[in-house]
Amino acid sequence: MSILYDFEITEDGSFQFTSDHGHIYSIYFLETPVPDKEGNIHTFLNLGFSRNGDHEHALFNNKYDKKIESTIIHILNDIFSKHDHRVLIYFCFGDDGFSRHRKITFNRWKKGLNGSIEDHNAIIEYEGTQVFSCLMLVTENPLRSLILEAFEAYLQDFQ
Amino acid sequence: MEQVKKTGSVQKNHYNPIRKMIEDKKMVIAAIKNGESLSNLKGIKIVNPL
After folding, report:
1. Could you give the CA distance from residue A38 to residue A4 in angstroms, rounded to a whole number?
2. Could you give the number of structural domains in chain A?
3. Of A1, A4, A12, A143, which is most buried with the most CB atoms under 10 A?
């Protein structure tokens, strides 16, 4: 039995698969330019997941499905293996009171990331709520320090 | 290692990409929930990262 779900890439570039329980998962990436202090423009990929066309907490409190984790981590590792300059960022929101659940699940998932990928977590105070963020990049990225410095500098605006 | 674009200029103060990313994602979440097409979202670019 496969440890991954078969996924397809849709017209808009998102990844889609159907779980054994019949739920349709979509993984999408929003592209955002992030300037650093030296004028380099880094492309951050803002990662999102939906389940059956929604982001409700059910995604995170159903019985744990290891194949979902494996599929998502496979996609993330593949991105970094093919594009080692990429920077991924994941935000989870607490509007529905399930930010902690998402964070725990995501922290569990990311343990499967390739050893060459490092991550940096931050809690952002945004309009009276806490947003959990996790930035991921390849440790050997020659612009790593500039990227992390820019990330930290932009975070300062929220304090 | 692939190269990144370089503009020679530094953008500060006016544009915070972290804020934009948070707002973009909130807009996408709302659009998906409402069954709207993501291609209609102004200023948001969904990409195939591969």
Report:
1. 41
2. 1
3. A143
pLDDT per position as a tens digit, A1-36: 558 999 999 888 889 999 998 999 999 999 999 999
Q: Is the pLDDT of residue A59 over 60?
A: no
| Binary contact (A44, B48; C-beta < 8 A) | no
Residue whose entry in the numeric block shows the structure tokens 């995501």: A106
ipTM: 0.87
Residue whose structure tokens are 């054994």: A20
User: Domain residues for A143?
Assistant: 7-156
In A2-147, which ranges are E strands? 7-9, 15-18, 24-35, 40-51, 87-92, 117-126, 129-138
Q: Which of residues 61-120 of A touch B (CB under 8 A)?
A: 78-79, 82-86, 89, 91, 93
pLDDT in tens, B32-43: 888 888 778 888
Residue A49 near residue A27 (C-beta atoms within 8 A)? yes
Domain range for B35: 13-40
Q: What is the model's pTM?
A: 0.85
Which has more pLDDT, B15 or A149? A149
Q: Does B26 touch chain A (CB under 8 A)?
A: yes
Which of A7, A11, A32 is the best mutation test for B, with the most CBs of B within 10 A?
A32
Task: Tell me the two tokens of residue A67.
Answer: 């194949």
DSSP code at position A64: P
Q: Which positions ≥6 away from A14 have C-beta within 8 Å? A: A26, A27, A28, A29, B46, B48
